[in-house]
UniProtKB/TrEMBL annotation:
<dbReference type="GO" id="GO:0030368">
    <property type="term" value="F:interleukin-17 receptor activity"/>
</dbReference>
<keyword id="KW-1003">Cell membrane</keyword>
<keyword id="KW-0395">Inflammatory response</keyword>
<keyword id="KW-0732">Signal</keyword>
<keyword id="KW-1015">Disulfide bond</keyword>
<dbReference type="GO" id="GO:0006954">
    <property type="term" value="P:inflammatory response"/>
</dbReference>
<dbReference type="GO" id="GO:0005886">
    <property type="term" value="C:plasma membrane"/>
</dbReference>
<feature type="signal peptide">
    <location>
        <begin position="1"/>
        <end position="20"/>
    </location>
</feature>
<comment type="subunit">
    <text>Homodimer; disulfide-linked. Heterodimer with IL17RA. Heterodimerization with IL17RA is independent of the cytoplasmic tail. Associates with non-glycosylated IL17RA constitutively. Binding of IL17A and IL17F induces association with glycosylated IL17RA. Forms complexes with 2:1 binding stoichiometry: two receptor chains for one interleukin molecule. IL17A homodimer preferentially drives the formation of IL17RA-IL17RC heterodimeric receptor complex, whereas IL17F homodimer forms predominantly complexes with IL17RC homodimer.</text>
</comment>
<dbReference type="InterPro" id="IPR039465">
    <property type="entry name" value="IL-17_rcpt-like"/>
</dbReference>
<keyword id="KW-1133">Transmembrane helix</keyword>
<dbReference type="InterPro" id="IPR027841">
    <property type="entry name" value="IL-17_rcpt_C/E_N"/>
</dbReference>
<keyword id="KW-0472">Membrane</keyword>
<keyword id="KW-0325">Glycoprotein</keyword>
<dbReference type="InterPro" id="IPR013568">
    <property type="entry name" value="SEFIR_dom"/>
</dbReference>
<feature type="domain" description="SEFIR">
    <location>
        <begin position="498"/>
        <end position="650"/>
    </location>
</feature>
<dbReference type="Pfam" id="PF08357">
    <property type="entry name" value="SEFIR"/>
</dbReference>
Length: 702
């Protein structure tokens, strides 16, 4: 059945003449011979082992020429793939030897005839096919009757249907006999490509240009080609060519494929997947991946495409340190995307998290039980390891490692080792996992924390009593002190209720870092708790920028705090790189640059509308024009410092902000603290040769 002109004009070139390709129905391979020959195709593929060349014991069959033809293999009426048909031409090679009284390999002698010259010839012909990523070898058994056996003459051909290949692929075909009497034949062929489709990037958009004739009507579909389950359609239109389709770069994923077909009865559809190796598509895939809890103890990794990932459970402590993997005793597990999996646990716990990684790189971490079982608890995880001959060891999992309970270490678990053992024996600990290798127990530490706070409160009461006595003895002298004490008490109460502010910035140069440090120090004088990577270099180096930011962001948002994005020329450049998916040059960011690492978590919050109430933007006067802040980040308040300091401080402190007069006074204090560092940073950038730099390129000047 001829294929519609539309598909052939796309695949084989824009030619006014009408082409047709033969259809091969069904998935089975087949072989046929020219007149006079008999042939048989062996079931299944064989190993591709040519072996060494051996001498022919007499006349033998050898391949002399290869021919190919494109056909369509159709599994259904409208489901066809391009296929390569191969024809092998055979000839007789060699002569009979005298005397010739023995049977020769490859010759099927008639037992009724003693003269071997009247015997037929048999050969095993191998066809080897390679088209990345496919490689196949098939074996054809051919027999030639004695009447056609003439040394040096062609005897006919054998045809194989067929090797499937993709449009645009380079195919290589070899043919030889077993055993091999001569050098194998080989043929390399470039299959027709798709000149009608062009994929180009234009800023934040990707353009699909379909160059077909103006009269041709065709269907266009975009879908996710998922390894598990059927394809998931995303977009479908009936169009008239030519057309230019514009996609947002955030819609690209590796399994996004394009299918085109003419709007005709029994039309053949052509599919290609051009984004499999696109770095932008792989980044978007991880941004779209989500971990989901399935009651009672199930979970699932949701993602548009298949991912070669491993998952492991880890224990997240309350103080925001790194999540400790539970390996051993619980091993890593290969994960199938969009498939429900079971936790190997007896019960859930908010501190148990899942880490998903690829090739030793952490990609996702979620504490799935934190929503249903509440926030993280101040519990310690006890690891009970069982060895041979009933040997047992018990240790507490801490950031420094697994600490034996009855040890002299200076950790909290070691100091409370005996109490924790008593809690375990009295049934106060929750068993999370148990098997022949050991067990996991979560033991609460709240009561030990309360004991320490009781001592603190007792000291406060004693101090208050002494102060009251002093007030009675020297009433007049302490009036001024009492006034100051009252103000300090109010400040202390506000500090206890103060919000957490996490500062994120790009380390453009040393002057800008000093300016950020001055801002952080000034904010600490207010009822604010400030977190900034300048004060956490050791933790940043130990955990890495991404893990450090992930822990700080989670703690800040859990406590109702706010993340402050400080925009500078370098920060704006990094944002544009991410928004335009331009890969950063290796080594362009410093090892402590938390801003570059944090964009992978910050951008999804803005793209999905979760930023308002969580984020605040700011930039410094004279260092950055107001319109330089990317439009995406203007969904949250963006302030100019120090000119808008009162509004900035009011937003940071939230509902607990003081009255406007007090707020203006604090803004003046912060402005005075910032001005020297701001002037120094501004003039260092205005003066050539002072070592100032902007953006990631600043590091190249040294």
């Amino acid at each position: 059945m001829p294929v519609p002109w539309f598909l052939l004009s796309l695949a084989l070139g824009r030619n006014p003449m009408v082409f047709s390709l033969e259809r091969v129905v069904g998935p089975q391979d087949a072989a046929r011979c020219s007149t006079g020959l008999s042939c048989h195709l062996w079931d299944g593929d064989v190993l591709c082992l040519p072996g060494s060349i051996v001498s022919a014991p007499g006349p033998v069959l050898v391949p002399t020429r290869l021919q190919t033809e494109l056909v369509l293999r159709c599994h259904k009426e409208t489901d066809c793939d391009l296929c390569v048909r191969v024809a092998v031409h055979l000839a007789v090679h060699g002569f009979w030897e005298e005397p010739a009284g023995e049977e020769e390999f490859g010759r099927a002698a008639d037992p009724g005839l003693e003269d071997p010259k009247n015997a037929s010839l048999q050969a095993h012909v191998v066809l080897s096919f390679q088209a990345y990523p496919t490689a196949r070898c098939v074996l054809l058994e051919v027999q030639v009757p004695a009447a056609l056996v003439q040394p040096g003459q062609s005897v006919g051909s054998v045809v194989f249907d067929c090797f499937e290949a993709a449009l645009g692929a380079e195919v290589r075909i070899w043919s030889y006999t077993q055993p091999r009497y001569q050098k194998e034949l080989n043929l390399t062929q470039q299959l027709p490509a798709l000149p009608w489709l062009n994929v180009s990037a234009d800023g934040d958009h990707v353009r699909l240009v379909l160059d077909v004739s103006e009269e041709q009507r065709f269907g266009l579909s975009l879908y996710w080609n998922q390894a598990q389950g059927p394809a998931k359609p995303r977009w479908h239109r009936n169009l008239t060519g030519p057309q230019t389709i514009t996609l947002n770069h955030t819609d690209l994923v590796p399994c996004l494929c394009i299918q085109v077909w003419p709007l005709e009865p029994d039309s053949v559809r052509t599919s290609i997947c051009p984004f499999r190796e696109d770095p932008r598509a792989h980044r978007n895939l991880w941004r779209a991946a989500r971990l989901q809890l399935l009651p009672p103890r199930g979970w699932r990794l949701d993602a548009p495409c298949s991912l070669p990932v491993e998952a492991t459970l880890c224990w997240q402590v309350l103080d925001g340190g790194p999540c400790q993997p539970l390996v051993p005793p619980l091993p890593r597990e290969n994960v199938t995307v969009n498939k429900a999996l079971e936790f190997p646990l007896l019960k859930g716990h908010p501190n148990v998290c899942i880490q998903v990684s690829t090739w030793e790189k952490l990609q996702l971490q979620e504490c799935l039980w934190a929503d249903s079982l509440g926030p993280l608890k101040d519990d310690v995880l006890l690891v009970d390891t069982r060895g041979p001959q009933d040997n047992r060891s018990l240790c507490a999992l801490e950031p420094s490692g697994c600490t034996p309970l009855l040890s002299r270490a200076s950790t909290r678990a070691a100091r409370l080792g005996e109490q924790l053992l008593q809690d375990l024996q009295s049934g106060q600990c929750l068993q999370l996992w148990d098997d022949d290798l050991g067990a996991l127990w979560a033991c609460p530490m709240d009561k030990y924390t309360h004991q320490r706070w009781a001592l603190v409160w007792l000291a406060c009461l004693l101090f208050a009593a002494v102060l009251f006595l002093l007030l009675l003895v020297k009433k007049d002298h302490v009036k001024g002190w009492l006034r100051l004490l009252k103000e300090n008490a109010l400040e202390g109460a506000a500090a206890a209720r103060s919000r957490v502010a996490l500062l994120l910035y790009s380390a453009d140069d040393a002057g800008f870092e000093r300016l950020v440090g001055a801002l952080a120090s000034a904010l600490c004088q207010l009822p604010l708790r400030v977190a900034v990577d300048l004060w956490s270099r050791r933790e940043l180096s130990a955990q890495g920028p991404l893990a450090w930011f992930h822990a700080q962001r989670r703690q800040t948002l859990q406590e109702g705090g706010v993340v402050v994005l400080l925009f500078s020329p370098g920060a704006v450049a990094l944002c544009h790189e991410w928004l335009q998916d331009v890969a950063s040059a290796p080594g362009a960011h410093g090892p402590h640059d938390a801003f570059a690492a944090s964009l992978s978590c910050v951008l999804p919050d803005f793209l999905q509308g979760r930023a308002p109430g969580r984020y605040v933007g700011a930039y410094f006067d004279r260092l950055l024009p107001p319109d330089s802040v990317p439009a995406l980040f203007r969904s949250v308040p963006v302030f100019s410092l120090p000119s808008q300091l009162p509004d900035f401080l009011g937003t940071l402190q939230g509902p607990g902000a003081p009255h406007p007069g007090r707020l203006a006074e604090r803004a003046e204090q912060v402005s005075r603290a910032l001005q020297p560092a701001l002037d120094s940073c501004f003039w260092s950038r205005r003066t050539p040769g002072t070592g100032g730099g902007v953006g990631p390129e600043a590091g190249d000047r040294t």
